[in-house]
Automatic annotation (TrEMBL):
CDD domains: LarE-like (cd01990)
Coiled coil stretches, renumbered: none
Disordered: annotated segments: 258-279
Asparagine synthetase domain: residues covered: 24-80
Protein name, as recorded: Asparagine synthetase domain-containing protein
Entry's Gene Ontology molecular function annotations: asparagine synthase (glutamine-hydrolyzing) activity; sulfurtransferase activity
Domain of life: Bacteria
Active site (record annotation): C178
GO biological process, one term: asparagine biosynthetic process
SUPFAM superfamilies hit by this protein: Adenine nucleotide alpha hydrolases-like
Pfam families assigned to the protein according to its UniProt record, in alphabetical order: Asn_synthase
Length: 279
């Protein structure tokens, strides 16, 4: 059951989208951008399009999932190739890595919007993101990228509730994010590391740990899963299976982060550290 307050926020979102006139949505296929795209398609119809970045810094299978979701929503869908690893300074993994990435992405997205005759570009930032460390938000501001979900006052949990109401398959999809975020700031990003992380998280998901992270620390991987999954992970057969999978990938040591994975602003395994080191 949707509360009256949430209905008001939904109405506010539709009004914001209607004022936009036409919209190109930066679309990852995750819960936030899928809901934004579906809402925009409902309001603006064929004046809505989606654009997805196909890149080696994104988990394998994400582009294919985005293509499937966009097709179900019924909008024009473009694929771009940002080539983040070729950006000056990106591979050094500085604290403004996300800014460098998003600046490049929004520059290309803005250019595509102009080619398609779309008045605006929007991304799926929500209210919860505003209290989080998001260097990429600066790039969105610089390129005039709209944040309709945040402007409507929508939180992540509310987006999931509205997505479920709309019948979107992404309503409960865990956030995935960029693979580079699994590498500590200051540690160089390499193709090998990205591949190891991607393969490791794929192994975790295949074993049933959908909301997971494989944090890369050289020869050591630090696995993050929810605390409610600890018992299953520590069953002898499962722990042996996961350890073998990561060692086959190339890790010498496989560890489980005992703080667990707790998504959300200001929470999770970085909570006792400098928040800028959230990765």
């Amino acid at each position: 059951m949707i509360s009256s307050d949430l209905r008001k926020k939904e109405k506010r979102l539709f009004e914001i989208l209607e004022r936009a006139g036409s919209l190109l949505v930066a679309f990852s296929g995750g819960a936030d951008s899928s809901f934004l795209l579906a809402a925009a398609a409902r309001v603006l119809k064929d004046q809505t399009a989606a654009v997805t970045a196909d890149s080696e810094i994104h988990p394998s299978g994400e582009k294919e999932r985005a293509v499937r979701v966009a097709k179900k929503i019924g909008v024009r869908h473009e694929i771009i190739h940002p080539a983040e690893t070729r950006l000056d300074g990106f591979l050094a993994n500085p604290e403004d890595r996300c800014y460098l990435c998003k600046k490049n992405l929004f520059k290309q997205t803005r250019r595509l919007a102009e080619d398609l005759g779309m008045a605006h570009v929007a991304h799926g930032a929500n209210v919860d993101d505003l209290s989080d460390f998001r260097p990429g938000a600066r790039a969105a501001g610089e390129w005039g990228v709209l944040s309709p979900l945040a402007d409507a006052g929508l939180k992540k949990s509310e987006i999931r509730a509205l997505s479920k109401k709309m019948g979107l398959e992404t309503w409960n999809k865990p956030a995935t994010g960029c693979l580079a975020t699994r590498i500590p700031y200051g540690t160089p990003i390499t193709q090998k590391a990205l591949s190891m992380i991607d393969r490791g998280e794929a192994a975790l998901r295949a074993a049933g740990f959908e909301d997971c992270r494989a944090r890369h620390h050289g020869e050591t991987v630090r696995i993050e899963i929810g605390r409610t999954c600890f018992q299953r992970m520590l069953e002898p057969e499962m722990s042996e299976k996961i350890t073998a999978a990561f060692k086959k990938i190339g890790y010498a040591h496989v560890s489980l982060d005992l703080e667990g994975r707790a998504p959300g602003p200001g929470r999770g395994p970085w909570k006792t550290r400098d928040p800028r080191q959230k990765y």
